[in-house]
Amino acid sequence: MELLVRQVAHWQQPRWAAVTSGGNVSRADLVHRLVQEIANLAADAEGEPRRTVPRLDNDLALPDQLRVVAADLLAAGPDDGVLVRAAAEVAATRTVL
């Protein structure tokens, strides 16, 4: 996760707005989808209801959102299968970016 955050933390708005390779969504939308998926995994691990992560107006906040939901997931103490799934989601996102 930290590798992805370091990859995108310095991006400016035009880079976030660019369409992903081989896709039809912006990089920002793709990373927000990842943020939501990690938040869902954390909620499931905590036994709490899933909540929608707000899509903020400023894409530059996405690395911080990713850090927060990753910390929430780790704090929930998920089993190894959940961590493997989260790592696979991050890897897939990095590949498309």
Name its key features.
65% helix; mainly alpha; 97 residues
Structure description:
By secondary structure, the protein is mainly α. It has one domain. Helix content is 65%, strand content 0%. The chain is built from five helices and no strands. Helix 1 runs antiparallel to helix 4, helix 3 packs parallel to helix 4 and helix 3 packs antiparallel against helix 5. The longest helix has 20 residues. The protein starts with a helix and ends with a helix.
Q: What is the CA-CA span between the terminal residues?
A: 14 Å
Which structural category do the helix and sheet elements fall into? mainly alpha
Overall residue-averaged pLDDT value: 95
Helix content: 55-70%
Instruction: Name the beta content range.
Output: under 5%
Helix run count = 5
How does the major sheet shape up? none
Topology:
Layout: H1 2-8, H2 13-17, H3 27-46, H4 62-75, H5 80-96
Quick synopsis:
The protein is mainly alpha-helical. It is built from 5 helices and no strands.
